[in-house]
Amino acid sequence: MEIRILGPLTVRHRSVDLVPSAPKPRQVLALLAARVNQTVTVDDLACELWDQEPPRSALNTIQTYITQLRRPLARAAAPSSPQGAGPQGAEPQGAADPVLVMSGRGYQLRTPVDLIDTASFDTLAEQGRQALAAGQNAAAADALRRALEVWRGEFLEDTRLGPMLRIHHTRLKEERQRVLEQRLEADLRLGRHAELLGELAGLTLLQPLQENVHGFFMQALWLSGRRPQALDVFQSLRRRLVRQLGLEPGARLRELHHQILGEEAGTL
Fold first, then answer.
1. pLDDT tens per residue across span 89-116
2. SUPFAM superfamilies attached here (predicted)?
């Protein structure tokens, strides 16, 4: 069963879409998918659905949602009968391993790790990090780029996020940003500064207070022979930081600024 949460919620088995349209069962499935192969307690499900004010009927309601999810999951996972075997309308022969099971005081959604998009993202990101640390910049850039391509949009962009899902959202958003910055670093090490200018210009508009992205943009401009524009990027960022946050740029960005002012070769 394929599970994807780095974009719209997708739970699919043998090309059958198993995501319910009703908002709260969808939210339950989303939290189970975010913690796939781990137990999600009833308390966490209640917190996700109703925050700190669950109704008295919360337990029964959650059990109802689980039952609604189990039926299509069980049908999709059931092995097909050989053609012509058994009477028409009979249940499929054989037993499939359950994919949504009770576990302690909660429930667990089960599927092989290689069918989970977050696992693919984590694996590629770790490969990229190790290659970058070893100075294998081409391999790092490739792995980190493929990790980013696992994302199909924003985290669970078609599903309401309660308190528990927002925790996952924050963690994955930060990890995605980290991988992006590592990929930019690898590309700069490979001398791809001119190719990065358009992407970095867009990123600085999307992330107007993000110092690392602005630093990469300054470096790419500088290495492309556009020193005045690189200095302008620093000054624009500094004005925004002071005006909106009351802060000066960090030490690394100030050092890069000084290097560009002195026209000395250097990197972040």
1. 344 444 456 789 998 899 999 999 999 9
2. C-terminal effector domain of the bipartite response regulators (SSF46894), TPR-like (SSF48452)
2-77+96-112 under CATH 1.10.10.10, yes or no: yes
Full-model pTM: 0.87
How many whole angstroms separate alpha carbon 176 and alpha carbon 122? Answer: 10
Per domain, the residue ranges of the chain are 2-77+96-112, 193-268
Residue 99 sits at the vertex; the CA angle it makes with 66 and 30, to the nearest 5 degrees, is: 55
User: Angle at CA 163, nearest 5°, toward 160 and 169?
Assistant: 70
Q: Is it true that 2-77+96-112 and 193-268 share their CATH fold?
A: no
Total residues belonging to the chain: 268
User: How far apart (Å, rounded) are the C-alpha atoms in residues 141 and 135?
Assistant: 11
Q: Which superfamily is assigned to 193-268 in CATH?
A: Tetratricopeptide repeat domain (1.25.40.10)
Read off the pLDDT of residues 203-238 as tens digits, 9 standing for 90 and up: 999 999 999 999 999 999 999 999 999 999 999 999
User: For 79-210, where are the alpha helices, taking DSSP H only?
Assistant: 117-133, 137-149, 163-189, 193-206
